[in-house]
């Protein structure tokens, strides 16, 4: 680390298992967020994911992750225990020539994202480290603005309300003034002591912006976000945060908030740019502008990487410079076919943020955004400027933003009166646009790079979560939770069972939980989107139209007009739903294995639009989600088939045997298995006679279960044909051998039982290679109730014999499979002696209590789950009741 001073450190070790990669990512993310470095979290998470994958998957060892914070940056080191596995650095450029090779991609990312990186070897470990420098965060500076005439001052309400909120070091509200109460409709008692995060609606775009926790830790911060009022609606605010400390050294943050359209009240004037500032004015250009021109303020733009602030300040200064009523700035898409609204002032919210218009809006010179244009009266040419339709604006001047001859955006200023602008104003605005175009493009590229890095981190996390489950309902929930509120305000997932089925609404989520039910009700009333396999997002207007219609009907009812039928929901709920769904709604197909299996629907609240980069990220997510959803569907179908077949192998309910208690406990090893290699059966043979069996097929899983089905059905059939125990087992042995390569050897205890009139029970048993049955007498003695004989499925000619056992009243016969006796904890095994000891303590217990006590003893013997199938069959002859 050289001379760098280490100010904080965090370390953790992760085992060589697949889930450790996700755990390591969470560790690094939580560490850096806790240190207040959210702006480098995405890069750090992506690099950590690659390096830990190399350690635990490719090298197959544990990974040691060390995070160090210094006065200049953050260094993260990932070490594995396989130093002999060298990094491929022998040839210059070898890593970067083959980014897909093992061990190459992680270093390729280090080279692309990290400030510095390297590899260090020791005798026991290999360390791959990278360092990310922290962006400079200068503290706020004092500055003053020039004196301006009254008509150049920003417009605000007659009564300006400035909410003053103080946040303690734990992020909770400690002071709430009267203006805050008036703006957000909360009394101080309702908010003091609660985290600000419960009320703040913070932007969640991956890779862009600063998180609220980081903003509260900075010495000074300004920006826009939302505060959720008591009615659930988000109120856009502009905030100025100042970090302070009291006489005791206790730190807190004072937040001043105004409505977002009153931002000029709090917005700090910017310093004049440094010598290398992109917006510095050349001496020759200075003379072209009158010194008193408001455009002089235009020089003081925000830092180049603060795109939103730069664009908003640009439109405000452009409007003031030309004394307009409104202004807007649009940025061009990469292919220069569309323009996206990124900032505006004086226009309805419908014209703001990410609405898109074509570059070529019509024929002729004035129909293209590539050339300056002056429209003296928009009513004479309807639709000439689509963005201004229905706004009341009559005249407009627009100029292109160009960098090296390429269209990067468009800047426009409009007025409500006609004939306001001439070519002279167009030249002034073009001059301003030329001065700011390079700064805007640089800031746009910086934001785009942050967004792409954040998107990569987002997709890494999303892929890991989706791959971690095969449950359909959980997959649907994950899809929605990953999109809300990160990508959209609300989300609905439709699924399609097959090509002949209608799409079904399967999951609905809204960032405001109180609106989920209303949103679901609304979506159930509209026809679902068509399951079209065309890739990409497409606009879906049905929810918005339905929400507006519902709001209109509610308004008419409230005025006593329209139908008198009572609405299913109150007017407030209906209007709230319309507000929540009234923005842009898009549908992305979920396509897996060349088939549409559903649709992912994303929506925005009233008058909001999606930005193109978010739609591209959502498209990437939809592809991953579709494959995860289809995998869960296939897994569910196969699990259902497997469980249905397995249930067919289990015997029906045990018969009620007069004078004999019977209890069976069965546990199949393996997740999702109901039947394994162990089996049991108790069935009537003829009047007064009953058969019972407990067996163990070699192995577990479906192959063993197949032999289980053969054995159980053969036993019943042969016993009811009148064959005795030895003959039944000999014929079963022949049937198993006839299976050829599919045959498996089988241990089996088979017996026949006859209840006697004196209260006892007569048994005839054959034990073919199976653990011997144990007999518990009333005096507590335990003894084997049969002798061992050869197992089945190995030899052709078996000579078996049966043994007769009489169970007196109070006696218990316990039969188990080797999953019980071979239960292990390290080198210890329960064994026959351990089972005998347990059974000795069961005197006087019912058959059910005996079986339950044996099961508890087996489960407590070892902490790990059982790895073998297990069956317990207990039969008891109850004592004869006196009188």
Automatic annotation (TrEMBL):
Residues covered by the PAS domain: 164-194
SMART domains, sorted: GAF (SM00065), PP2C_SIG (SM00331)
Assigned keywords, A-Z: Hydrolase
InterPro entries: Bact_Sigma-Reg, GAF, GAF-like_dom_sf, HATPase_C_sf, HATPase_dom, PAS, PAS-like_dom_sf, PAS_fold
GO molecular function: phosphatase activity
Protein name: GAF domain-containing protein
GO biological process: regulation of DNA-templated transcription
PPM-type phosphatase domain segment(s): 659-877
UniProt KW Hydrolase keyword: yes
């Amino acid at each position: 680390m050289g001379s760098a001073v280490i100010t904080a450190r965090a370390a953790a070790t992760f085992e060589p298992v697949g889930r450790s990669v996700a755990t390591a990512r969470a560790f690094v993310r939580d560490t850096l967020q806790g240190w207040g470095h959210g702006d480098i979290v995405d890069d750090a998470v992506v690099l950590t994911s690659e390096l830990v994958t190399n350690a635990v998957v490719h090298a197959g060892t544990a990974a040691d992750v060390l995070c160090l914070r210094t006065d200049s940056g953050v260094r993260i080191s990932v070490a594995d225990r396989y130093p002999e596995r060298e990094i491929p650095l022998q040839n210059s450029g070898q890593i970067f020539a083959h980014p897909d090779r093992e061990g190459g991609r992680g270093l390729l990312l280090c080279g692309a994202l990290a400030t510095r990186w390297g590899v260090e070897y020791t005798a026991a470990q290999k360390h791959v480290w990278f360092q990310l420098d922290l962006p400079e965060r200068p503290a706020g500076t004092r500055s003053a603005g020039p004196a301006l005439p009254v008509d150049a001052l920003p417009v605000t309400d007659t009564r300006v309300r400035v909410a003053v909120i103080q946040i303690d070091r734990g992020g909770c509200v400690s002071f709430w003034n009267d203006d805050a109460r008036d703006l957000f409709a909360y009394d101080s008692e309702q908010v003091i002591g609660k985290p600000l995060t419960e009320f703040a609606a913070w932007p969640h775009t991956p890779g862009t912006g600063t998180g609220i926790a980081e903003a509260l830790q900075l010495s000074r911060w300004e920006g826009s976000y939302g505060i959720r009022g008591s009615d659930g609606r988000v109120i856009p605010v502009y905030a100025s945060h100042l970090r302070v400390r009291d006489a005791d050294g206790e730190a807190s943050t004072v937040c001043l908030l105004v409505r977002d359209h009153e931002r000029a009240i709090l917005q700090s004037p910017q310093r004049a740019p440094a010598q290398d500032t992109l917006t510095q004015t050349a001496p020759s250009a200075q003379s072209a502008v009158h010194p008193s021109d408001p455009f002089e303020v235009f020089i003081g733009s925000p830092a180049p990487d603060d795109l939103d602030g730069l664009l908003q300040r640009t439109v405000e200064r452009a409007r003031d410079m030309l004394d307009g009523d409104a202004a807007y700035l649009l940025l061009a898409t990469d292919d220069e076919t569309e323009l996206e609204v990124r900032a505006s002032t004086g226009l309805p919210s419908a014209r703001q943020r990410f609405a898109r218009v074509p570059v070529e809006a019509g024929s002729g010179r004035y129909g293209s955004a590539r050339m300056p244009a002056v429209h003296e009266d928009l009513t004479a040419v309807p639709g000439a400027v689509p963005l201004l339709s229905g706004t009341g604006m009559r005249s407009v001047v627009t100029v292109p933003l160009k960098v090296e001859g390429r269209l990067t955006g468009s800047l426009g200023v409009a007025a409500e009166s006609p004939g306001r602008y001439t070519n002279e104003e167009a030249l002034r605005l073009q001059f301003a646009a030329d001065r700011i175009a390079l700064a805007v493009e640089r800031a746009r590229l910086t934001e785009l790079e942050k967004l792409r890095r954040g998107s990569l981190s987002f997709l890494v996390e999303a892929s890991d979560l989706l791959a971690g489950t095969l449950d359909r309902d959980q997959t649907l929930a994950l899809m929605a939770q990953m999109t809300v509120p990160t990508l959209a305000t609300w989300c609905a997932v439709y699924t399609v069972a097959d090509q002949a089925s209608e799409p079904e609404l399967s999951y609905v989520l809204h960032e405001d939980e109180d609106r989920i039910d209303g949103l679901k009700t609304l979506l159930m009333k509209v026809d679902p989107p068509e399951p079209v396999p065309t890739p990409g997002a497409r606009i879906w207007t049905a929810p918005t139209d339905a929400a507006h219609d519902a709001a209109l009907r509610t308004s008419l009812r409230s005025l006593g007009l329209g139908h008198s039928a009572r609405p299913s929901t109150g007017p407030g709920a209906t209007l709230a739903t319309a507000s929540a769904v009234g923005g842009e709604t898009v549908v992305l197909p979920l396509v897996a294995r060349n088939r549409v299996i559903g649709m992912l629907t994303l929506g925005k609240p009233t008058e909001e639009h999606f930005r193109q980069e978010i739609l591209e990220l959502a498209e990437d997510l939809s592809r991953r989600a579709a494959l995860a959803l289809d995998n869960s569907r296939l897994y569910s179908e196969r699990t259902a088939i497997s469980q249905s077949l397995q249930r067919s192998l289990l015997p029906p309910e045990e018969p009620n045997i007069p004078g004999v208690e019977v209890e069976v406990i069965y546990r199949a090893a393996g997740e999702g298995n109901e039947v394994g290699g162990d089996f049991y059966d108790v069935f009537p043979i003829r009047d007064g006679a009953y058969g019972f069996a407990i067996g163990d097929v070699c192995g577990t899983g479906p192959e063993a279960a197949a032999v289980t089905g053969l054995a159980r059905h053969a036993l019943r059939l042969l016993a009811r044909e009148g064959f005795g125990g030895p003959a039944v087992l000999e014929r079963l042995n022949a049937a198993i051998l006839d299976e050829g390569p599919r045959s498996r050897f089988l241990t089996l205890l088979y017996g026949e039982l006859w209840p006697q009139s004196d209260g006892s029970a007569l048994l005839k048993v054959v034990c073919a290679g199976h653990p011997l049955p144990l007999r518990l007498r009333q005096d507590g003695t335990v003894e084997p109730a049969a002798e061992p004989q050869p197992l089945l499925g190995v030899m052709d000619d078996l000579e078996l014999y049966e043994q007769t056992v009489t169970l007196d009243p109070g006696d218990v016969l316990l039969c188990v499979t080797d999953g019980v006796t071979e239960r292990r904890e390290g080198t210890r095994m329960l064994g026959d002696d351990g089972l005998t000891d347990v059974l000795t303590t069961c005197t006087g217990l019912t058959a059910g209590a005996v079986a339950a006590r044996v099961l508890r003893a087996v489960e407590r013997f070892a902490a790990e789950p059982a790895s073998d199938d297990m069956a317990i069959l207990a039969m008891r002859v109850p004592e004869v009741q006196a009188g």
